[in-house]
Input
Amino acid sequence: MPATAWRVRAARPDDATALHALITELAEYEREPDAVEATPDALRAALFNPHPRVHALVGEVDGPEGAEVAAMAIWYVTFSTWRGRHGIWLEDVYVRPAYRRLGLARALLGELAQICVERGYPRLEWWVLDWNESAHTFYRSLGATPQDEWTVWRVDDEALKVLGSPAV
Output
């Protein structure tokens, strides 16, 4: 593959459709092709309102037709009660298969790490599916460590409605 010019930048409102396509591809990769409920409009509203609570970076690759969004990192600010400081939660990172090994994922994570350092955040965290060994290997190469002593819990859909209903 010839050298390809690329860059990482903050997502813009006109990236919402490309972000949606990447999210759909990620869901297929993660064996959940029907799980995506988000739409480009929902992403645009969440990411680009006057006070967004979620943010996105994109990896943009130069091609014959111009720049193409080929990678994404969607993230938000968290808080550690033990540290008494904020951190970043990486909700999703994804690079289209044709553009892997260019350094886009490392650059996206590096940009998030830089944001953490600049803001004094002590943590950058994310989940990885147990079966995704290539991701585990990649993240270990960056110095990341798995937090195996924690179990993820979730309340959603009908159970969330029941839990959130007023006690009778």
Summary: The radius of gyration is 17 Å. The chain has a mean pLDDT of 95. The domain at 6-164 is CATH 3.40.630.30 (Aminopeptidase).
